[in-house]
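Narrative of accomplishments. A recurring question from our advisory board has been how the design workflow behaves on a single, concrete structure rather than in aggregate. To address it, we present the structure tokens for one chain from the evaluation set, followed by the sequence designed for it. No filtering or post-editing was applied between the two.
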């Protein structure tokens, strides 16, 4: 099991099991990451500064979907 998702993950890239980039973490709430699949450069910059976004197109990643959390967030291959 990986460590709980925290606000420290905002701005990190989310990749699938094969390493394909899926988006960036726009915000973390209740130990769930909200991932923006099409971040603009401005959104990426704001996320890197810790400013959380709130878009309708964001999708949710829960802790049970995670393979690892480091410089990037990698999802498990068996989802």
């Amino acid at each position: 099991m990986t460590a709980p998702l925290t606000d420290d993950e905002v701005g990190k890239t989310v990749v699938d099991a094969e390493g394909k980039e899926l988006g960036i973490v726009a915000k973390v709430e209740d130990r769930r990451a909200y991932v923006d699949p099409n971040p603009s450069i401005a959104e990426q910059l704001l996320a890197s500064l810790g400013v959380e976004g709130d878009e309708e197109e964001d999708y949710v990643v829960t802790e049970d979907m995670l393979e690892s959390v480091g410089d990037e967030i990698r999802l498990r291959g068996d989802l």
